[in-house]
Amino acid sequence: MTATLDKPVKAPTFQGVGVRRRITDLTATVLVTLAVLVALVPLVWVLVTAVIKGIPALTSATWFTHSLSGLTSSAAGGGIYHALVGTILQGLVCAVLSIPLGLFVAIYLVEYADRKSRLAKLTTFMVDILSGVPSIVAALFIYALWIATFGFPKSGFAVALALVLLMVPVVVRSTEEMLRIVPQDLREASYALGVPKWKTIAKIVLPTALPGIITGVMLALARVMGETAPLLILVGYAPFINFNLFGGEMGTLPGVMVAEMNNPTDAGTNRIWGAALTLILLIAILNILAKIVGHFSQVRSK
């Protein structure tokens, strides 16, 4: 004979959600949604304004193929070829110097350094300090060291050095985070097979973390390419093309905007918004490239 119970012996683990929790959840959802909308309003406003006012300049036939050399402030026409070249050259030099330095520092902190090591503590402290340094302070430091002390002229290379100070801590932090999320089991399995530590890092750890590292590097580069303070202090603005990074004034996209701020004509306004939209598109392209490279560099599980 089988006995039948009117109710379970043990209460179920998951109870129904009460009215109070539902109200709290709904309130939090509404507040977070409103906060996101408030944050999006200025972003969308800036993007829409830049697109509307910058499109006439970008659709000009000479915008990407000519410089502003020989044009008066009120003359229409010309382009930002010189500024685009200067911005890309300075960004490339900054990336060449910053990426290896940032990667090696992050590898040392995660893979080799002891938490009690004085060198590791000092390195972490310096990275923290650099993370909070304003761009104008970095520019003044390079000016005092590179130009006032060593006697080198103002140049695009000096700007790249100042950008290195701003980019390295971002690369270190992003790479550090990506290396720390690599499972320790992968390292231990490699060590168990007799693989040296340096080869484990090069063949196992870095490829596993590579998509995140690439994304962090590209975001750091996109961030420093819009800095203005180093341009104002370390190199003058030139409306013509200059490929020499070690001498002479050089045009950049932020430099065009600063220079045309004193030009009240319609031509100056068009150049400001055109340069702003070009810089936004350049940074957007870098972010899209980072996503694409990160996607195709993922370690396949099969």
From TrEMBL:
GO BP, one example? Answer: phosphate ion transmembrane transport
Could you tell me which residue ranges the ABC transmembrane type-1 domain spans? 84-290
Tell me the keywords, alphabetical order.
Cell membrane, Membrane, Phosphate transport, Transmembrane, Transmembrane helix, Transport
Q: Which GO terms describe its cellular component?
A: plasma membrane
Q: What does this protein do?
A: Part of the binding-protein-dependent transport system for phosphate; probably responsible for the translocation of the substrate across the membrane.
Family classification = Belongs to the binding-protein-dependent transport system permease family. CysTW subfamily.
Specify the protein name: Phosphate transport system permease protein PstA
User: Taxonomic lineage per UniProt?
Assistant: Bacteria, Bacillati, Actinomycetota, Actinomycetes, Mycobacteriales
